[in-house]
Amino acid sequence: MADRTDPPFPAPARVAVRRTYKLYLGGAFPRSESGRSYPVTSSRGVHLANAAQASRKDARDAVVAARKAFPGWSGRTAYNRGQILYRVAEMMEGRRAQFAEETAAAEGVSRAGAERLVSAAIDRWVYYAGWADKIGQVLGGANQVSGPFFNHSEPEPTGVVGVIAPAGSPLLGLVSVLAPVITSGNTAVLVASECAPLPAVTLAEALATSDLPAGVVNILTGRLGELAPPLAGHADVNALDLTGAGDPGSELASELEESAATTLKRVLRPGLHDDWTVADPGVSRIRSFMEIKTVWHPVGV
Amino acid sequence: MTEEIFEYAPAPESRSTVSIRPSYDLFVDGEFVEAKSDERIVTINPADEEPLSEVAVASEADVDRAFTAARRAFERVWSPLPGAERGKYLFRIARIIQERARELAVLESLDNGKPIKETRDVDLPLVAAHFFYHAGWADKLAHAGLGPSPRPLGVAAQVIPWNFPLLMLAWKVAPALATGNTVVLKPAETTPLTALAFAEICQEAGLPPGVVNIVTGAGDTGRAVVAHPDADKVAFTGSTEVGREIARAVAGTGRRLSLELGGKGANIVYDDAAIDQAVEGIVSGIFFNQGHVCCAGSRLLVQESIAEELLAKLRARIERLRLGDPLDKNTDIGAINSAAQLARIRELVAVGEAEGVSGWSPACLIPERGFWFPPTVFTGVTQAHRVAREEIFGPVLSVLTFRTPEEAVAKANNTPYGLSAGVWTEKGSRMLWTASRLRAGVVWSNTFNMFDPASPFGGYKESGYGREGGRHGLEAYLG
Amino acid sequence: MPDTVPGSLRAYLHGLPGVDEVGVHRRAADLATRSIKTTAKRRAIDLAIRMVDLTTLEGADTPGKVRALAGKAMRPDPADPTTPAVAALCVYPDMVPVAAQALSGSGVGLASVATGFPAGRTSPEVKLADTRMAVAAGATEIDMVIDRGAFLSGDYRKVFDEIAAVKEACGETHLKVILETGELVSYDNVRRASWLAMHAGADFIKTSTGKVTPAATLPVTLVMLEAVRDYLAATGRRVGVKPAGGIRTTKDAMRYLVLVKEVAGESWLDPAWFRLGASTLLNDLLMQRTKLNTGHYAGPDYYTID
């Protein structure tokens, strides 16, 4: 080898290995069972990648995965859930550049603006990580009933939550709706922004490496009109976050709410102008997906 | 022989405290006003089928008038009023209810069929307590954990059921008023009288006109109330079927909605339970208010190792229940509220028998007139039987057994409902383990069917959403 | 020979189902709302009179006082010969000879407290001698106290053996065992002590000496009635119950009768199986009886105060 000569031609520029953007179901990264994908472009119309176009069956599988994960996730200590959510923030920090690039392309913001959005998104995970073991005290408490009883209310996660992520804020908005759902112990089936799904897939890759148990978060990319109705009508989905389903009272949001009524799902309606950059979003999103359980116990010797 | 020595003589509560008008109009804008339609509903005493009075049927136009009054009262009087002043009206109402408690208890027993013992000792004290409790909240809403300056929603459309007529009114009206909302309320068609007496109490309390409006009628009136475009908030207690309809109707309107619906509560008795108190809890769980209770413990889940002993004690205890005249102070089980409800109970019991589960009832004398159903226990029930799945809303208990705590919890949760559950054990850690796994909004441990205005009440899953009572109940009326 | 208790006493007694205090109070309060009117009240008053153990247990008791009370026991209302006699007269052991003579041939029972009543803090020999003396002097019923100190320290065997020994000393004489529930405090203890006493041979279990507060209460009596009911089902032997102390009014007495009827059952509604240990109760029962018969409220001056 010592007398090895240079190659006869100059080395070509290295060909990058491109990512395949897949679904995140039950902790795995499958393609859509339908075999479909759809092109994703930047806000300026430049082709970025093909994303998996999930089907109704993928939505169904996602609900199964979320239901399976629910007892374990809700049964963990709140402290442990908080640690795992914090770990998600750590994993995101490690992928800053990728998130920033995708956010800039998706939202058409400057690199610096994208960096700020990524920082805010990471900070949001940290924010909700901290809520995991405090929400019980804030929303629960002892009730002074008139009798010899210890009466206590505490919030519990409602179960499987279908989340329609906001279309226009594919990373910060996405994190802002997802983290409050899972911090309390719910599991989620999330439909990513239809036009800008790539940050959601990157987030899935961060989630997959952050000790989050399989199935706690399931992410579907594809057509909102195809994926949201089966979630709204699914009897094993306990609640719906319609944030990304259009303006309040939009046709889609109304249809989904009506469909959700069949099994009396809890529904968080779309807000009018959600401002995702607010530093302290409060507990209202967490509270929307929790049930208050009240336990009575006699006090006597 | 000893039977003769000490058999309770009739001890009827006097009807003389109650004066029922032959006919009632609608209560709108502080006054009783004639309905636009001539249609009337006759309300009868379910214990003897005698008519008590007739009430107006509110049409859409009447409902519209009520909303106009409620909106005006909300904007001009009630929401601008300082919380402390609002609270004083609620305190007044609470006091008047206490003063007129006996009258209202008798009236409720007459119109509903429930025993005077319950209206006197449970319903009315709780009604007064609800107004007292919420009166105190009116000027403290900023401390309810819902932000520094929570705002009332506006006009609340409220539809309530017939099982606890005045108590359900209190659960709806007291928090709505304390938080600064005004209301249009529709009582159930078979039990409108105490709501109309409450209208008089509002007048007596000097409550500003339009703050509380009461429109009587049946399903059409109810639909007009919950679908009214000027409602900012819809609150409903009743069946899951109707709740679904309302949720569909409200979808897309942006109106806030809270629903308190049906249930199929499991009462889990472990082998180490305080067995005599468990028997009491089972009895009050299913036979309280003739089983017309959404949170009734209608499924008894008993550990196999004590099933025989427990059931023997339970049967002996049920044999002591006294069924009959609701106004007799010693009556434990009164009349079924209506012919329709009696038919529904009979239908489901017939289904149970056809499915081969064995039913047992104590020997008890059923009065000739009125609507009655004896306390009934179905044994040998499995989760596959309809009597174990469907809400019967009557004095019918289904008994299932289990072997391990895991099995108990799995069976308890194996229902689309999630309102209430009971757990009986003398072991604290097992109680907490079980309570934390039950998917139900209210868990009674070593007790059952206890209620308190400070204690949030409401369901998981298809038992509805939102809470009533306590700090948590305020959220349903604040934005 | 009393029933034998299987296995270790402690394991057995602690294996009895627990009692939830709040639940017991709730059930007792619910039963207390039963309304006893007209014919039911009339019958219940006479039944209650027949169940009274008319009691005087004072340091100041004298033969005169005991004779007077015996007269009252036999003829509670001299103005109305239809008034039944009470079940028994209850006195200290040294008063038994006087009482026996006064009651002779009347059919009214003679109960003597014994075993170092009320504290029971004396030697086993003295307790047995106390019992034998009362029996020999003509007592038809013995009201003994259990050793609460031994019970609370967990020495159930000692309590059991003592009851069994007293039972033997009683011979044919009826034995009532006073649990002194006010000192046992918890209903779990009341249930255990009830079963312990029944297994050791008690013919009656009795709540209290009357010297400790609280004495008889509705909830404690309810728990004891459950015990005798379940003991009958388990062993076939019926044991009686006697609440004592603090029962003063006709309303109180009615509530106890309701409890007996609805908890243990009608078959206990008999002076052979249920007694009311009381002193002032009797006059209130008599006043209410007169009210029912005449339609007018009575005054205390019309009733003897012995």
Keywords:
heterotrimer; A: 301 residues; alpha/beta; 5-stranded parallel beta sheet; 3-stranded antiparallel beta sheet; 10 helices; 10 strands; globular; B: 479 residues; 7-stranded mixed beta sheet; 6-stranded mixed beta sheet; 16 helices; 18 strands
Question: Could you explain how this protein is built, in words?
Answer:
Chain A is of the alpha/beta class and 301 residues long. Chain A starts with 36 loop residues before the first strand and ends with a strand. In chain A, 41% of the residues lie in helices and 17% in strands. In chain A, 53% of the residues are buried. Chain B is built from 16 helices and 18 strands. In chain B, the strands form four sheets. A seven-stranded mixed beta sheet of chain B has the order 13-14-15-12-11-16-17, sandwiched between helices. Chain B starts with a helix and ends in a 5-residue tail after the last helix. With 306 residues, chain C is an alpha/beta fold. In chain C, helix 5 (96-103) links the parallel strand 2 (88-91) and strand 3 (109-114). In chain C, helix 10 (187-200) crosses helix 11 (218-235). The radius of gyration of chain C is 19 Å and the shape is globular. The model of chain C has no long low-confidence stretch (mean pLDDT 95). Classes of the chains: A alpha/beta (301), B alpha/beta (479), C alpha/beta (306). Chains in contact: A-B, A-C, B-C. Chains A and B meet through strand 4, helix 9 and strand 10 of A and helix 9, strand 17, strand 18 and helix 16 of B. Strand 10 (290-298) of chain A pairs parallel with strand 17 of chain B, so a sheet runs across the interface.
Q: How would you sum up this structure in a few lines?
A:
Chain A is α/β, with parallel strands linked by helices. Chain A has helices at 56-75, 78-94, 96-107, 111-131, 135-139, 172-183, 198-208, 224-233, 251-261, 284-288, and strands at 37-41, 47-52, 141-143, 149-157, 160-164, 187-191, 217-220, 239-241, 266-268, 290-298.
Write the layout of secondary structure elements.
The complex is a heterotrimer of chains A (301), B (479) and C (306).
Chain A: E1 37-41, E2 47-52, H1 56-75, H2 78-94, H3 96-107, H4 111-131, H5 135-139, E3 141-143, E4 149-157, E5 160-164, H6 172-183, E6 187-191, H7 198-208, E7 217-220, H8 224-233, E8 239-241, H9 251-261, E9 266-268, H10 284-288, E10 290-298
Parallel strand pairs in A: 5-6, 5-8, 6-7, 8-9
Antiparallel strand pairs in A: 1-2, 3-4, 4-10
Helix pairs in contact in A: 1-8, 2-4, 3-4, 3-7, 4-6, 8-9
Chain B: H1 2-5, E1 23-24, E2 26-28, E3 31-33, E4 40-44, E5 51-56, H2 60-78, H3 83-99, H4 101-112, H5 116-137, E6 155-159, H6 165-178, E7 182-186, H7 193-204, E8 212-214, H8 219-226, E9 233-237, H9 240-250, E10 256-260, E11 266-269, H10 275-287, E12 299-303, H11 304-318, H12 339-354, E13 358-360, E14 376-379, H13 386-389, E15 396-402, H14 405-413, E16 420-424, H15 428-437, E17 442-445, E18 464-465, H16 470-474
Parallel strand pairs in B: 1-5, 6-7, 6-9, 7-8, 9-10, 11-12, 11-16, 12-15, 14-15, 16-17
Antiparallel strand pairs in B: 2-3, 4-5, 10-18, 13-14
Helix pairs in contact in B: 3-5, 4-5, 5-6, 10-11
Chain C: H1 9-14, H2 21-31, H3 38-51, E1 52-55, H4 63-74, E2 88-91, H5 96-103, E3 109-114, H6 124-136, E4 141-145, H7 148-152, H8 156-170, E5 174-178, H9 181-184, H10 187-200, E6 204-206, H11 218-235, E7 240-242, H12 250-264, E8 276-278, H13 281-294
Parallel strand pairs in C: 1-2, 1-8, 2-3, 3-4, 4-5, 5-6, 6-7
Helix pairs in contact in C: 2-11, 3-12, 3-13, 4-5, 6-8, 8-10, 10-11, 11-12
